[in-house]
Amino acid sequence: MGPLSSVRREVASLRSNGRGPVLLAVAGGWGTLLGARMIYPVLLPYLRAEFGLSLTVAGFLVTVLWLGSAVGQLPGGILADRYSERLVMTAGAAVVALALLVVIAARTAIVLFLATGLVGLGQSMYPIARITILSDIYPDRIGSALGVTMATGDLGQTVLPPVAGALAAAIAWRAGLGFLVPVLAVVAVVLWVTLPARPSTDSAVDDLSVDSARYVLGELRRSNMAFIAFILFLYIMIWQSFTGLYPTYLVDEKGLTSTQAGILFSGFFAVGVVVKPVAGAAYDRIGVRLSLIVVLVGPIAGLGLLPVVEGFWPLAGVTALVSTMLGSGAITQSFLSDAIPADIRGTGLGVVRTAAATFGALGPVLFGSIADRGYFDEGYLLLAAIMALVVLLTRRLPAE
């Protein structure tokens, strides 16, 4: 069977039994939310100029965004276990829309930071519910379904940041965020209309008691989640550090224009549109270890080459090399969904992802402080070394 036939078979399977509209709605919402989040690095030079932010403080703003996106995943997972995912995901999109209105109206750095944290909190309600609903709908194709969803996320991150950058350059940075508010309102309506209004599930977490916490942590220990959570933490720290200040690095250190930097930044996510569905399908077929190693080897070389490469097109090649790491999300999240028991899937995913993403969110502010001290290039070499450690640790994961 040729590659084209395999693709057609996967598409037909994902669309079968009326599941296509649900996948389309979930993926579209995810793409819009991630695109909104990735507008921040593109607008960071404008925010630095208006609010007088240093690189360290600008990195901290990105950290606040990622921290908000992390800490809300555990409550979001608990709610996904107990209530309809439709309610949780719709509420998440609505909260982000309202928070962006506050960001647009901000006149002080304090309001900017608080509203940015609220953007992250709204976004954090979506990821776990997205995984649990797809796990139920696609029990035999979770890797492929998550791969498509996450590829749509990269499509949003490819398309929306350049639009925001163009609006910021032509009008003002507030216009670069403002156009998303009505888009998110439409997303909320589509999610509410399309997703099934399922009743609350039979969750093992009926309350926030010590017994419930002990049960969840015991199940996670039996599933060896601490090790995969540590790998996930390292990966998130690398990814957030790289993306948080990459456009600024290209402008300040490589001499590119803001437009060129925006193109390369979008190109980074454009590669993910292709890589993530392939990575998710690879997980379904060859397991977590080999598929994860394949997508993470290239970024080691790319991050190591970044300080010595100059010029738009060479930097485009290095950016594409680094971007293969985007495929790891479809692999690790599919593995987590399969490994965590169904009765605590949402809560368990929330614990693992919140722990990993909370600590990983420290990456941008630490990376920003390194850059402020004149070690921007060395920071990327450090990321390459950490990525090499991730690959070595991945060899300890099960083959299947």
From TrEMBL:
Annotated membrane topology: Multi-pass membrane protein
Keyword Membrane set for record: yes
UniProt keyword list: Cell membrane, Membrane, Transmembrane, Transmembrane helix
Transmembrane segments: 21-40, 52-75, 87-115, 171-193, 224-242, 262-283, 290-309, 315-336, 348-367, 379-397
UniProt xrefs under InterPro entries: MFS (IPR011701), MFS_dom (IPR020846), MFS_Efflux_Transporters (IPR050189), MFS_trans_sf (IPR036259)
PROSITE patterns: MFS
GO-annotated cellular components: plasma membrane
Record's subcellular location: Cell membrane
Main location group: membrane
Sequence ranges assigned to domain Major facilitator superfamily (MFS) profile in this UniProt record: 21-400
Any GO molecular function: transmembrane transporter activity
PANTHER family per record: CHLORAMPHENICOL EFFLUX PUMP RV0191, PURINE EFFLUX PUMP PBUE
Listed name of the protein: Major Facilitator Superfamily protein
Organism: Halopenitus persicus
